[in-house]
Amino acid sequence: MTATPPFRIMLTMRIHPGREAEFERTWLNIGDVVTSHPANLGQWLVRSEEESSTYYIVSDWADEAQFREFERSERHLKHRQALHPLRASGSMVTGSVLTHLVGAAAPVPAVG
Questions:
Q1: Beta bridge partner(s), residue 46
Q2: Could you report the per-residue pLDDT of 13-52, keeping only the tens digit for each?
Q3: Is the distance from CB of 54 to CB of 88 less than 8 angstroms?
Q4: On the CB side of 84, how many CA atoms lie within 13 Å of its CA?
């Protein structure tokens, strides 16, 4: 049986200048709204090195259907409402992870 590849969400968020630290704190404080969902595989917050007010948020999901269910949920609406005042603009792209190549410097998982 072949496992379903993770469904990946990639957001670009531009934050109002001067509110970057507030955005980072808020994102971290409410992050469990996403990661506590049973279909969420994890999420990452990345700050652009080129544009200090630009962030990339990546989250992986068990499949698209469960992500879309979360996207329409009341808990997601509250999550978005907390971040919306900090956001100047944003965009989202989605896709299915086709493969993952592990790099030489990646930690070896503990067996046990």
A1: 56
A2: 999 999 999 999 999 999 999 999 999 999 999 999 999 9
A3: no
A4: 7
As beta bridge partners, residue 44 has 58
CB 51 within 8 A of CB 28: no
Instruction: Calculate the alpha carbon distances from 27 to 8, 66, 78 in Å.
Output: 18, 21, 12
Entry pTM: 0.88
Report in angstroms the alpha-carbon separations of 51 from 35, 36, 56: 27, 30, 11
Q: What angle do CA 94, 57, 74 make, to 5 degrees?
A: 80
Tell me the residue type at 44: W
